[in-house]
Amino acid sequence: MQKSDETIAERVMQVITDKFAGSFTVKNLRYWYTVKYGEISSRRIFLVIDQLEADGILRRSETHVNKVRFMRPPAPEKEPALPATE
User: Fold this and answer.
1) Considering the domain boundaries, does residue 27 fall inside one?
2) Does 76 map to a domain?
3) Structure confidence at residue 65 (pLDDT)
4) pTM to 2 decimals?
5) Which domain holds residue 12?
6) Which distant-in-sequence residues (6+ apart) come within 8 Å of 82 by Cβ?
7) Per-residue pLDDT, 39
8) Which residues, other chains included, contact 37 with Cβ-Cβ below 8 Å and sequence gap of 6+?
9) What single DSSP character describes residue 65?
10) Rounded to whole angstroms, how far apart are CA atoms 67 and 16?
């Protein structure tokens, strides 16, 4: 039985957010996915990465095909503290 691509993408994102702070390699991603969820092919990982890259979540390195950067959404700006009134 084939798992849906959406489920795999959700699992890949879970592994990325749990294990990696910034950039990582596809080999490391595949290893940690296998540890947590079971075997996955490199082809399937690349298909998911392509989709996440199209969504603007990941960015593949221009110089190294297996290196990927996780593009965290910008942190919400903190509201300036209100001056204390006495």
Assistant:
1) yes
2) no
3) 73
4) 0.70
5) 5-70
6) none
7) 93
8) 11, 15
9) T
10) 13
C-alpha span between 63 and 52 (Å, rounded): 19
Task: Give me the CATH number covering residue 60.
Answer: 1.10.10.10
Measured over the CA atoms of residue 41, residue 46, residue 51 and residue 55, the dihedral's sign is positive
Position 21 in a domain: yes
Largest CA distance in the chain: 67
Buried b (16+ CB within 10 A) or exposed e, 2-12: eeeeeebbebb
Along the 86 residues of the chain, how does pLDDT read in single tens digits?
345 778 888 999 899 888 887 888 999 999 999 999 999 998 998 899 898 888 888 888 888 778 888 776 555 555 555 566 65
pLDDT at 1: 37
Amino acid at 22: G
CA atoms of 75 and 67, how far apart (whole Å): 24
